[in-house]
Amino acid sequence: MLDAPVRRLIAPPLDAVAGALVRARVPALAITGTGWLVGVGACVAVATGHWTLALVLWLLNRTLDGLDGPVARRTGSTDLGGFLDLLADFSIYAGFVLAVGVERPEARLACLALLTTYYLSGTAFLALSAILERRGDARIADGRTLLFVGGLAEGTETVLAYVAFCLAPEYAEQIAWIFAGAVLITAIQRTLGGVLLLRHPAVPAAREVS
User: Fold this and answer.
1) 17, 28 in Cβ contact below 8 A?
2) How far is Cα 195 from Cα 128, in angstroms, rounded to an integer?
3) Which of the following CATH numbers is that of domain 3-198: 1.10.20.10, 3.40.50.1450, 3.40.50.10260, 1.20.120.1760?
4) pTM
5) What CA–CA distance (Å, rounded) separates 33 from 161?
6) How far, in Å, CA of 33 to CA of 89, rounded?
7) φ and ψ at 137, to 5 degrees?
8) What pLDDT, in 10s, does the model give residues 7-47?
9) CB-side neighbour CA atoms (13 Å) of 169
10) Taking a C-beta distance cutoff of 8 angstroms, is the pair 71, 26 a contact?
11) What single-letter DSSP state applies at residue 143?
12) Domain-by-domain residue ranges, the chain?
C-alpha cells in the first residue's frame, strides 16, 4: 500500500548512491549477495535475542535491497539478477519470522500463521505476475523484473512490521497476529484482483513509433 509513495521519496538518494557504486565498479549481484548475508545476520541476531543489532542489520539489508535495482538498471538488468533478488527477499522475510518464533516461544503460533499467509500471498503474487508477464499485460507494469501486484501489506509494511518486532519484542505475538491479518487481506486482494484482471483480455504495452 505504501510502496509507490515511498519509492518516489527514496528514489533520488538511492540513485545517487547507485551512481557512486557504478563508478566504483560494484556489480549489482554483489550488492544482492551482501544484502542477503546481512539479512541472515539479522535473523541470527533475532533468534539470539540481540534485538538492537537485528534492527540495524535489518535496515541495512533493506537499504542494500534498494540499491541493487538502481545499479542493475544503470549497468544492464538481467533475469538472473531479478530472480536472485526476489529469492533473497523472500528467504529473509521468512527467516526473520522463524527467528522471532525461536526467540519468543509465546509467539510461535502467530508466527506460523504469518508464514502461512506469506505462502498464500506469495503464491497469488507469483502466479498472477507470471501469467500477466506471459500475456504481455501492461496494466500493472512498473519497470521491475516481475509485474508487481500490490495490496495492503507490501515491502514497506514488512519493513515497518519487522522494525516493530525489534523495538518491542515483548509484543511479538500481537505484532505477528496483526501483520498476519494484513498479509491475509493482501492475499485476498491479489486473488480477487487476479480474477478481475484475467477475466478480460490483456492490455499490451504501447509500441514505440520510430
Assistant:
1) no
2) 9
3) 1.20.120.1760
4) 0.84
5) 23
6) 11
7) -80, 125
8) 777 778 888 888 899 899 999 999 999 999 999 999 999 99
9) 21
10) yes
11) S
12) 3-198
